[in-house]
User: Fold this.
Amino acid sequence: MCGICGFTNYRNDVLLREMLNKMFHRGPDEEGFYIENSFVSFGIRRLKVIDLITGSQPIFNEDRNIVVVCNGEIYNFVELKNKLQTKGHIFKTNTDVEVIVHLYEDFGLEFVKYLRGMFAFALWDKKNKTLILARDHFGIKPLHYLVVNNSLFFSSEISPLYLLPNMCFEVNKNALSYFFTFLYIPEPFTIIKQIKKLPAASLLVWHDGNFYINKYWKLQKTYEFEDLKEDFILEKIKELFYSSIKEQLISDVPLGIFLSGGLDSSLILSSVSKINTGKIKTFTVGFTKEYSSFNEINKAEIVSKHFDTQHTLEILTPEIEKIIFDILEKSGEPFGDSSIIPTYLISKSARKSITVALSGIGGDELFGGYPRYIGAYLAQKYIKIPLFLQKIFFSLVYNLKLTHQKRDVVNWIKRFFYVSSNLKEKYILWNSSVDFYERKQIFIDKEIRDINLEIFPQIRNYEDVFYFDLSTYLKDNLLFISDRASMANSLELRVPFLDVRLVEFLNRISLRKKIKNFTLKYYLRKILEIEGLPPVITKQKKQGFQIPLSKWVTEELQELIGDYLSPHRIKREGLINYKYLQEILNQHKSKKRDFSDLLFAILVWEMWNEKFAILASGQNNKSIEITSKLKVLLINLGGLGDIVMMSPILKALHNKYHAIEVTLLTIPRSKEIAKNFSYIYKIYTLPIKYKMFNLSNMIEIIKVLKDLKRTKFDAVINLRTVDSLLGMFKILLIKKFINSDTFIGYGKKFAKKIFNFFFEEDRYRGLTEVEITYKLLTILGIRGVPDYIFYPLNNEFKDWADNYIKEKTSNKKHIFLVGFCPGAFRPSRRWPLEYWRQLAEVIVKSYKDTVIFIFGNNQEKKLVRTISSGLPSIVVTNEDLDNFNKVAAVLRKMDVVVSNDTGLMHLAAALGSKVICLFGPGDVVKYTPYVEKENLYILRKESVNCKRPCYRYNCKDLKCLKDISPIEVFEIISKIISNRVCKKNV
Assistant:
């Protein structure tokens, strides 16, 4: 199994290498390239499975004028190789891929019809200057492409295509409509308008800037085997399946089986046991006892014992957010079927001991394994009932409560009785996360609200559902899961049911016979009975590889949904009706309707959109051609708040240019907080003291700048305003050593000559510093509205904070937490200490269930003692919180934070806490934390005699701070407490 990528009519060797690096997980064992001037470049990341010694790719024919890179396996390569050798072809390796080049030599574009397996490959015909892309019969292996400026770019995954220089990608809202409806995006669409999926069973032929796509295989609807005797059919199925298993067991690395205990995996194990005389490795994923209805552990153990396998059980205790992000990053587009999570986990577990696994995917489609097939048979008759009667029946079942169990019969009943007179519409509705009425309520954007169902096959009668599922759900959902979840863990997953000979045979038998007497998988059960498996296996009901998503939405995923489905995110995008979203959340929690699939899909979309979305950004003011890894230096000689305010800048740079190295030049006290941002490649520090250089450290400063001089930066961005002569001197000194032609910054008009690209600060009055510095990115082609500030806190510290707070509050439940941050860096920014004391006294007196945490460093012990002396329910943190991560972790747990320190107020706001900001001298608007307004309370008293903005750092009459009374702050805290109590009671 591998990852392939490349392009035509273009040469950029570094880009090719970067694209391959993005798919390291698909092929961690080896890398290979083929580059022919500017005609074609392609490469491969290889996972070694067959021919570990001589099987390196690319693979050539005898005279090296045909070359191929292939992701997948050619299962009938031994048979093909023997035939090709008799025709005089010389093989130089033992790999399966070599048959492709020789078949092309003999049969031209017809060559792909001879292949049997799972594959996506790129073949270059050097003589005819023709590139051929191909994908297997069922779309087991993915392949994506886009055409721009007479060049074709292709890749196994979408993410590498995001690296293309100077591209303005746009989200495909039609694809997003399909995603929200079916939880997947059907071919040929992807989440990006410009990028397409090569359809299954297709060839793309590129020559001289033009291309066309041909289908080389298609199932024909025919039931010519209807009159065959049952015994003959069973024997033929066994023969074909055994042949498929035998071919797919060829491997030079350890192999095992995903064993659910269901009919499909049991038949695989039964067949493998006839060939493999050794101990077979099997793997099962299960759940804790509270989700026992979702478990297949017991049946898997029965089958394992029956065949005496070496069995591994993985209990599902996932870090769901981390898994989703890993899948999103490695696949490049959102995917909403939650069953990808257990597949990911079992793949991760299996990869510890094997490299190849067999899976039962495809068995349900081929043998009639879904309850909806019986439903389709009944629905064919039910839709003939008058619509007014259907409406009456539906109203009778509408208010039935769901169980949130795996076999939720109530949910099945509700879905069956949806009102419809069209079988295709009804069947599609059963496979949808939202019905046609609800989509009009929840989606604001018309492109998402409207959906074109014409791209899907017709369903004229219930027999047609076989073709419908094979060409939609199986290909675009289940096979997406099998590839992305397994390859994310560098595991090759084979699907022996999808052998073209077996599929074509079963295609000639009607669905009616496959579910004889309403028995799902009738033939499969019969075969397993013959094989001697116990009745508990052969007579079991359909389980399915599911997670308890319906319950998770109201429990385990509640915090994640609260974060990503918050009002500011949803309303800002303008795609979804937030009021109706709240309504379906409430319906789901009350068990009136099951909206878990839709809610999970929206959650995944928001997670993708936050971290990976690359949207159209218009024409760049300055275009940087990425012929190498883009190198950007950020200068931020500021403290904690300035580093936090930089977070949207880091994210925007990463999203726009994945091939980027961001270096940060800052001051020593900011290094600890900055190193938590994974977007930063390297951090340098200048030992500069506040407002002036420390001359004794000048030698060290020069040394650091000389070290930086060795790197040629594509762009340098100074993120703090240059508004003083001393500030200008600092930047001039730095610029003297920095090697870059693109120097970007902002400040007072007198600083204009320092920079190549300058933004005058006075033009941006009324904007926050985040919004102003985001304007600087327009030089790099980044436009739009910045995301809110954030701080990437490690889960390790979150757990630590939970224990710390429990210890300090004696494990009291429902306690209200208030954080005080009185230690402003500049004394002129500090609220009077007696005010902090008065505020603490009134809180403790009014709310006995409140604990106050005071945040400060060891230099502020006197200040902390002044506030806390003699008061109960006060936690002094300066002794315990010995680093910023601990401070952040505890701040995150506060119900409200009161701060006159801009650094800590930004950190608390970035972590999602409600913050009361006490502002003294300075630009209040500019330094207000850039977060949703409902989480901020800004307090500052304007004075008639003061200019605005005011920068009087040594002011002797701080009316702006002194006029903020403790009672005024307490009233806001009381309001927050009341709101929380109300929410709790609701």
